[in-house]
Amino acid sequence: MLKASLILLIAPVAMATLTPSLPRGEQIIARSAGEICVIPSKLSGGEYSKKDLQLEQTLCSYDINGSAATVAACGKTASTNPAVEFYSIPEGMTAAQVEAKSCDVPESKMLTKYKLSTSCSYTPSILGYYHLSRLLGDVNQVPVSVLRTMDVQRHTAIGKKTIAELAAKKQGASLIAQTWGSLLSFLSPGSTSPKRDLMMTDDFKQSYGALQKNPNKEEKYTDMFFGGADQAARAVNFRDKSPIYQILKSSKPANILVSNRFEVANVQKVLQMKNVADMILLDTLMNQSDRFGNIHYTEEFYYVEAGEVKHAGKMTPEEITAKGAIKARAMMMKDNDCGVNRPNHLKTAGLLAGLAHFNPETYHKLLKLNADLASDSMKSFMKKETMMTDADYASLKANAAFAAATLQNACRSGKLQLDLDLDGHFAGVAMNTSCE
User: Fold this and answer.
1) How does pLDDT run across 26-57, given as a tens digit for each residue?
2) CA–CA dist 378, 65 (Å, integer)
3) pTM of the shown model
C-alpha cells in the first residue's frame, strides 16, 4: 500500500514529539544551528507531481541562520497566526539587512511560512492536507508542505522582535501580538511547557512545525462565503445559501443541470461543483474548523485535446486561440492549519450527506483510503510524516469510515451520481460509475 521507503519507519510513537536524529521520511536535510527539514515519504497512489517533488527540495534548502542564511526570516504581523515568514534576499543585500527592515523590502518576495501547533494552527493538519489531497487525486491545489525544525533561541528572538514591532505600531494589544505572546509562553519553559510534545523536539532545543509553500496569484473566492458569526454558522449558511451547493443537492443528472457545450459558464459550473464536493470531503476527513472565509482560487486555462480536458496556468494568445482555451476559476485550499483536533463543522452541518453528485475518481480513492486506514503501515506513515497522535489518527479513521459509508450508501441507493468529471462531461470520456 505504501512505497518501499516506508519499510524504514521505526517503532510507533504515542505522542507527537519529534526526535531529530531518528530516521524519518525519504531524506532528512540538515541545516545550520542543528535544524532539520524532512523530505517526506509518499503515499502509494498519491498524485505527487514533479513540481511537488521539486518544491519539497526547495523548501528544505532554505537556511535562516547567520552566514549560512539563504533566506530572511521575519515574524508575521497580520491576521492571527504567529508564523515565521521566509523571504528572498535581493541581490546586494544580506539576510540580516532584510530582517532589519522587517522584511519590508520591495525586491524581497515572501517564499514560505513556518507554522506550528499554536493558536488554532496544528502541524498535523497542514502536513496531513498535503498528503491526503494528493491521495484523493491532487484535489484543490493544496500547497506543498514539509516538516521542519527551528532553533528555539532563534525562534524566540524572532517572536520578541515581532512583538516589539507591533508595540511600536501601537498594535501591542492586537490579536496577532497576543498569539505571538502565547507562542513564546509555550517555547520558553522548554521541558515544562504544556505543549512541549506538540511543538518542541525531545531535547527542547528546537521547535518543529510545517513549512508551507506560499502560493501567488491567488484571490479570495468570495463566491464561496455567505457570512456567519462563527464557523459553525458559516457552514450552515453555506449549506443553505450557496447556489453551487444547491445544484450539488439536485437529483437531476449533471448533463441536465449543465450543458456539455465547452463554454466558459458551463466549464466554470462543473468545475465549481467538483471543487466544492472535493472540499467538503477533505474538510470532513480533517475536522476543518476554519474554512469559510478562507477559500481561494486561481485563474486557469482549460481546453479539450486528444479526448480529454487539459489545463494550464499560462498560455500565449496564440496558444489560446489555437486550442480554443477558456479561462475559469480553480479552487485553492491554502489555509489548512486549523484542523484534525478541532470541531467538525462541515460534518455537523450535514454538507457531505447532502451531496447528490461527486467525482468518480475521488469517490473510489476515498473507498481505498478508508480500507487502507486499517493498516499499520498507513498509521505509521501518518504519525511519522504528519506528526499525528494516536487520537488524531483515530479521528481521521473514523471520519473516513463515515465519509465512505455516507457516499457509498447514497450511491447504492441511487441518490449519489458519480458524474462530476470534466473529461466525461465535455470530452465524452466514459466514467467509472460503479458504487463498489
Assistant:
1) 999 999 999 999 999 999 999 999 999 999 99
2) 35
3) 0.94
